[in-house]
């Protein structure tokens, strides 16, 4: 697929591109990820290059897998939706 122009420049600059690295062991899966683009498209924002800097510094984000890892996330919340 060749790059093409999109809503904010080249497609992917405002889309859902992310990278994952996953390994499997007897202890279970271990996954890390980061966005392939940064959190802001505003060059004046401190978040304009944050994800590129994470990648350069090899600071991938660990992804929770087990119930314990998910529940340990301070941002975790759970909702039950009735039909």
Q: Could you describe the 3D structure shown?
A:
Strand 1 and strand 2 form a beta hairpin. The protein has a domain of 55 residues. By secondary structure, it is α+β, with helices and mostly antiparallel strands. Strands 3-4-5 form a 3-stranded antiparallel beta sheet, covered by helices on one side.
List keywords for this structure.
83 residues; 16% helix; hydrolase; S45; hydrolase activity; Acyl-homoserine lactone acylase PvdQ, quorum-quenching; EC 3.5.1.-
Show the helix and strand layout.
Elements: E1 5-6, E2 9-10, E3 18-25, E4 28-35, H1 50-56, E5 61-63, H2 67-72
Antiparallel strand pairs: 1-2, 3-4, 4-5
Largest sheet: 3 strands, antiparallel
Secondary structure class reads alpha+beta
Integer-rounded radius of gyration? 17 Å
Give the strand order, joined by hyphens, for the main sheet: 3-4-5
Helix content: 10-25%
- Average pLDDT across residues? 79
How far apart are the first and last residues' alpha carbons, in Å?
41 Å
The SSE string, one letter per element, is EEEEHEH
Number of strands: 5
Contiguous runs where pLDDT drops below 50 for at least 5 residues: 1-7, 9-13
- In percent, how much strand structure appears in the residues? 25-35%
Overall 3D geometry?
A: flat
